[in-house]
Amino acid sequence: MALVMYWYDFVCFGIVAAAVAVALWMQWRRELATTCDDNVRYQSLLVARPDINDHRAVHALMPRNHVSSSQLWTSCWRGVHPGWLLATRFISFLVMGGLLLTDFLDWDATIFVYYTEWTFLLALVYFALGTVISAYGCWLSSKNPAAAENAKKSVPLKRDVEDIGTAATSITYMEDESTSAVSLQSHSAEEAILERAGFWGYLMQIIYQTCAGAIVLTDIVFWCLIVPFLSNTHLGLNALMGCIHSFNAVFIVLDTLLNNLPFPWFRIAYFVQWSCIYAIFQWIIHACGFTWWPYSFLELDTPWAPLWYFLVAVIHIPCYGVYALIFKAKNTIFPRLFPRAFVRSF
């Protein structure tokens, strides 16, 4: 059977291609941004700058989108042991893993044609990676109790340093350059560990922000669109589906209330790319003979398809914005209610 394509199909392809292009441009502009006065470029996904004794010099060199290794496993609450964040992530991983396994056993591998299952699996990967990194942080904290305390102090210090002018930053860096070089040479083994943590740490950060936007999108579509209007025999609405579309939001918000991770706006690019990959996946399986669409607004065989694709692309902004507001509320309300206990996440 020949594959029939219409003009509006190409418009849909163009919308997705444009979304991918804009996302790549945002990543190029912000994720790979130049970070210091000597024009050295750091690819933040691959390399984390090693910690040195003078935190002021380190943060002067770090980009605003930098995530230090300590932020991955410490809490935003003073006095809260990293073990609590570890326990939260591990319990979230177990519960979500159990729900996904039950869903898989009740149906089969075809559940992964749904965007919800993709996002649920991605959240599961986040909590698995977060559990491992938190366990490492707990081990580091038990081995060197001062490490956790210094990690908490480095976050407010970062904001103080960012307010210093460029001239002061350059002077501070030049004064401590020789000391930093000696420290780095004497800790070559530690540098290797920190570099690996940089890759996995930024991967965890990217998955976290992608999950946040995708979970808001899936839950809004499920509860506000699919349940009232678009339920069908393929969807199989039941208590399990309700749990999947509830616990994902509960666990990611709970993690946000405890963790010390930042939430910059530009990483909406990863969320957009995640959705574009799913759309392309749907096109491929339908080109190979798959007969039904899990979401009717993704169908290509209607002249209204370009409008639906455009609306779905636009809705990514408010969905990501909803979670950005949750993060902003956390950093705005909690410092006022608990000024001595809460540490802002930047």
Describe this structure in words.
The protein contains 11 helices and no strands. With 346 residues, it is mainly alpha-helical. It has one domain (7-337). The termini are far apart. Keywords: Membrane, Transmembrane, Transmembrane helix. The chain crosses the membrane at residues 6-25, 83-101, 121-140, 206-230, 236-258, 270-295, 307-327.
Largest sheet: none
Roughly how many Å apart are the termini?
55 Å
Number of strands: 0
Order of helices and strands: HHHHHHHHHHH
Number of helical stretches of at least 4 residues:
11
| Count of discrete structural domains | 1
Shape: globular
Q: Report strand %.
A: under 5%
Q: Helicity, in percent?
A: 55-70%
Q: Determine the structural class based on helices, strands and strand pairing.
A: mainly alpha
Tell me the quaternary state: single chain
Mean pLDDT: 79
What's the short story on this structure?
With 346 residues, the chain is an all-alpha fold. The chain has one domain. Helices cover 69% and strands 0% of the residues.
Secondary structure blueprint with pairings:
Elements: H1 7-31, H2 55-61, H3 82-106, H4 115-143, H5 145-162, H6 166-175, H7 177-185, H8 188-230, H9 239-258, H10 268-287, H11 305-337
Helix pairs in contact: 1-10, 1-11, 2-5, 2-6, 3-4, 3-9, 4-5, 4-8, 8-9, 8-10, 8-11
